[in-house]
Amino acid sequence: MTIAPLPTGFGVRTRLVDDPGRLIDLLPDEHSMSWVRGSDGLVGWGEVARFRTSGPDRFAEADRWWRDFAGRLDVDDEVGTPGTGPVAFASFAFADSSPGSVLVVPRVLVGRRDGRAWVTEFAHGDGASAMRSVTPVRPSGTLRYADGHLSAGRYRRAVAEAVRRMRAGEIEKAVLAHDLLAVGEDPLDPRFLLGGLARRYPTCWAYAVDGLVGATPELLIRRTGGTVESRVLAGTAWPGDGPDADPARLADRLLGSVKDRREHALAIDSLADALRPLCAELDIPESPSVIALHNVSHLASDVHGKLPAEDPSSLLQLAEAVHPTAAVGGTPREAAVALIAELEGMDRGRYAGPVGWVDGDGDGELGIALRCAQLDGPVARLFAGCGVVADSDPDTEVREAAAKMVAVRDALEAAG
C-alpha cells in the first residue's frame, strides 16, 4: 500500500551538496532510516510511501510494487550514481510465515560516497534545510533485562536437540537464535542505539528501518549495474583471557577450526548454488579470511559475480534467490528453516532477514539483519544466533550468542 495516491508526474530531484558531516547526526527522532558504513552511506527521513508484504512471495511483490512506483516518478537526477534518484529502504522478515516485511520511501534522503554528497527530495517535501534543527538524542537511561520468547536455558536445550538430530544424519546445519528484552523507563531513542553501534563498529553497516536498528558485518547482496557482490560470514570466535586475547592467536585458532571451516563452507556453497543460475560469471574465493570486530571475529569470504547483459535480475530478485543462506538458515535450506521454527518456537520477525536499500534502477545493498534490536517504545528486543553443526557444544553456543549480544547491549547502555 502507498500512504497516499501518487499524483501523475510526482517529482523527485537529486543534487550535489557540500559535505553534510556525520550522516547519522542529521536524523530526526521520528521516521528515520539509515544504511551507513564509516562516513559513507544513506540516511533518510519523512515518508512518501510505504509498502507492506508477507509470505513466500514477499520479495516478488515488493519488487513489482517498487518498479511500478519508481517508474511513475518524474526524476531529475544530477548525480547519476547508485543510491541517487528514488530510493526505498527495505527490511524483510526472515520466515515466509512472518509479517512485517516493508519498503519505505523517505521524503528526504542524504547520501555520500567516495567524497561526493547529495540530497534527494520529493516535490512538495519538507526539504533538507528544514530538518537541520533536530531534537537532541536521548540516552537510554536505566535498563532492566528480561527473558524474551526463548531464554538462554531453553536456547541451550534447543541447540542440544539440533546437535542430536545432526548426529543422527537428519540435517547438516541450522542457525538457531534466541532473544533478550531490554526495558527502559521511557521510550528508547533509535538514534542513540544507531549512533553507538556506528561508532563502535565502523566497518559494519549501521542500519535503521521501521524500528529495527543494528550494525551488520554481513552483506547479503550488492547490485551495481551488471555486477553483484556478497560478503559471507560463518564461523565465529571471541577473545578470552590470556593467549586467547591476542587477535593473531584468535585468528589462527579460527582458521584452524575444523568445525568453523565446515560451517563456513556450507554457507559459501549455499550462496553460490543460489547465485550461479543468475550470473554469467561467479568468483568464489578458495579460502576465507578473518574479520575482527570489537566483540567477535568471523571467517569471511567476499564473492563477486557478473550478471548477464540481457534481462539481469534486480536487487530484490537476487535477494529472493539467496535468502536465507546457510549463514543464517542452514543446510539443507528447507529442512533447516523448518527445524528453526520447531526448536525456537518464536517469531524472529525481521531478525536475520535482508535489510538495506534499493534504487530506481534496481541497484542497491542488502545486508543480513544481525546484531540488532527491534525497538517498540521503552522495549528493545535483542537477537543473537549461532551456526549449529554436528560437533557443536551447546554451552559454547550459548556463550557465543551472549558475546554477539554485547554489541547491542553496550550501545544501549553507553553513557553518551
End-to-end Cα distance, whole Å, is 38 Å
Assembly category: single chain
Tell me how many strands there are.
23
CATH class: Alpha Beta
CA radius of gyration:
21 Å
Q: Strand fraction band?
A: 25-35%
Say which CATH homologous superfamily is assigned: Anthranilate synthase
Question: Explain this structure to me?
Answer:
- With 416 residues, the chain is of the alpha+beta class.
- It has a single domain (11-413), classed as 4-Layer Sandwich (Anthranilate synthase).
- Helices cover 26% and strands 34% of the residues.
- The protein is built from 8 helices and 23 strands.
- Strands 1, 2, 3, 5, 8, 9, 10, 11, 12, 13, 19, 22 and 23 form a 13-stranded mixed β-sheet that branches. Strands 4, 6, 7, 14, 15, 16, 17, 18, 20 and 21 form a 10-stranded antiparallel β-sheet that branches.
- Strand 17 and strand 18 (297-306) form a beta hairpin.
